[in-house]
Amino acid sequence: xxxxxxxxxxxxxxxxxxxxxxxxxxxxxxxxxxxxxxxxxxxxxxxxxxxxxxxxxxxxxxxxxxxxxxxxxxxxxxxxxxxxxxxxxxxxxxxxxxxxxxxxxxxxxxxxxxxxxxxxxxxxxxxxxxxxxxxxxxxxxxxxxxxxxxxxxxxxxxxxxxxxxxxxxxxxxxxxxxxxxxxxxxxxxxxxxxxxxxxxxxxxxxxxxxxxxxxxxxxxxxxxxxxxxxxxxxxxxxxxxxxxxxxxxxxxxxxxxxxxxxxxxxxxxxxxxxxxxxxxxxxxxxxxxxxxxxxxxxxxxxxxxxxxxxxxxxxxxxxxxxxxxxxxxxxxxxxxxxxxxxxxxxxxxxxxxxxxxxxxxxxxxxxxxxxxxxxxxxxxxxxxxxxxxxxxxxxxxxxxxxxxxxxxxxxxxxxxxxxxxxxxxxxxxxxxxxxxxxxxxxxxxxxxxxxxxxxxxxxxxxxxxxxxxxxxxxxxxxxxxxxxxxxxxxxxxxxxxxxxxxxxxxxxxxxxxxxxxxxxxxxxxxxxxxxxxxxxxxxxxxxxxxxxxxxxxxxxxxxxxxxxxxxxxxxxxxxxxxxxxxxxxxxxxxxxxxxxxxxxxxxxxxxxxxxxxxxxxxxxxxxxxxxxxxxxxxxxxxxxxxxxxxxxxxxxxxxxxxxxxxxxxxxxxxxxxxxxxxxxxxxxxxxxxxxxxxxxxxxxxxxxxxxxxxxxxxxxxxxxxxxxxxxxxxxxxxxxxxxxxxxxxxxxxxxxxxxxxxxxxxxxxxxxxxxxxxxxxxxxxxxxxxxxxxxxxxxxxxxxxxxxxxxxxxxxxxxxxxxxxxxxxxxxxxxxxxxxxxxxxxxxxxxxxxxxxxxxxxxxxxxxxxxxxxxxxxxxxxxxxxxxxxxxxxxxxxxxxxxxxxxxxxxxxxxxxxxxxxxxxxxxxxxxxxxxxxxxxxxxxxxxxxxxxxxxxxxxxxxxxxxxxxxxx
Length: 969
Description:
This protein is an alpha+beta fold. The chain is built from 14 helices and 52 strands.
């Protein structure tokens, strides 16, 4: 792979050589930019020359200097969010320029790039788009810009831990959302192996964020496979525009009034340094470190994993209790089945031990006792008549014989005693991010960039299980050549799972080390029969049996528990060998992604008669989990993908109408190629008032896990496997030994409760599509309006209708393997079409220096195909309200953000249940200290400290209260 990067490097050098032209005589532009009212220097003001690329940003004291080849006269443009833009004609001396900006908030003045992959006013965007600037990030009340994404119109999230949040729009939210793409400086930051976007764990630091743009809905025509629910693009700061040193220290507390924990500290340090020389060479580096105590997963509700629904009871009242955030109790057995297994094993053992003289010990006992239930004396007499070598096994068998004969053993499942999540996962949250980049301006229009982002962290992630991510790290490394009309880039993502492990497997294996299930279940049932025979009630007997079977169980925090936990945590899943007492829950993932992409904008070449762009990309997934995630213990897995797109746009009728047509073709080695078109129209009905209409298509390849996963989850109660034929059929023979549907298997189990014997006629086979899992696609129709109804009132509204085809979902099936049923979770495509629709309205209103904002969104799912598991996972109604003033009095500002969302039902492979409605208020006040270019902020998220959770099975979050000091933010 290093050879490929070497080749890419030489290609970039070639393009570099082709773009270097004779440099005209350059001149220096310098001066100072100040606040007109306070006369204080303004830092971070963008200085550019109209019609030319390049420029700079003012330093901490407001001064600026850069070189340009533009000839006088030219127009110098100074712009800064929160201030009116100033243009000054330069006709002579270009040094010693003094500029003054006035405070002003201009609605609808933002320029966005992601909607069409070319700069355009946000008012004229052909599709819905949300934007967050560096200036607005400084004013947010939330602890981080990523947390503040929730305040955007139509955005929802799934919070799995303090630092792990999954962003989504327009329904079908999920943990580790794979239908929503995230990019940092054009690099896809989804972990290639674990399949979640890591933007809020590792990646961009807050001080280095230039802007964030979010596209709700499908965007495959421009950005390739994935992102059928939305795309988030985060762009870091350029050292030429944002030079200087900055730092921010934030300290606070969380876990206030938390029953799980005392008040805990929250600390975060961010540092950024950037420098440029002669507008030719630039360098920057950024660092962030966060340390806190994570939120606790404490949902102890009882869960039926077969029916995927909640059930009544707890550990004291339900012998088959399975708590949501309790692990190890997923291991469950039917009492009668265990008793019958003991009986069959005893018959076989006695037959062998007696040399065939006693072929069936049960038949001999039945002949001896007849229909009577033998008492203790009769049992002793029977044992005395056996050879001494056989007495022990038969004595152990007697409780089961008596229990089955007397009907004392119920047809009921019992589960092992589990461990709470807090005893198994690492809640000591850490997040370290480091990034650096080198920039070289080959000419005024061509730049080469080498960039490295690296981060490591400890967090908790929810997938089909709760995964403790310990010392997880990921690196992204990019080389890019870009100009006004083109870019060429190559980057790689290097994922390392560190010391991450599966919590339920850990809990189950600690139980196995303390006492194997092959001993625990028989011991439980034998003591249950004894208690029932002694006259105890079922409830009393169940409690007594558990107390005996749990003798020797490793208590949380005990030396035995800690030793077993450390051993299992540090042993990989693939190294497990129960026959040798070796158990492992650790991932060993070292998967990589390599991506190459180029684009050229022909608009200038065509004299702007039309706007035309074209580009292509190639991607390689190199999966390496050593059998701990994928089916790659003995074979290597590579996935190759490539694609190309083109887009043409034209303004008509005196620029009142603009139509854009785009299309992209993508091909993965495992699936047929897909073409995704996009058609948009923007109609200017009045100045600064536009109606937009669009037809977009998108598609998503099955994730790397959808294709190749082979992983035991749920404490070993289920195996997740990939949906490719080579996994389903070649390895697990789900075609020749067909499994049974989830519904029919539940009916099969229920029949035993009624008749005493399960009815196999109730089992219905499930037949998988011979093609295996395939890409899903969406057709999206949108009608929207964005405009200034008044100079101080911005309105943005849209409605959408989506049609999904081949929607990727999952089925649970049960395969009969040697008389035992094995549960598989398999990705499949839903038959028929899945539809969803919705609308949103956003308002921004200025009253003097006060900003009042609000948005409301509505999302609904349409008719569902038969047997489709509804995982829309989205509230029908949610809204946000904002109120702020960056300077209510001199140097003092404030910001409030309130959000509310309706209740909804959450369905996932980990857990399913009702998510209650909740509300949350974020607030902050700020004090600017211009003399030292600093800001002090006092604020908090969820300041009313109403604990809530966003997705079922994930922890509840309370308030975070903080104080922050920032220098030159």
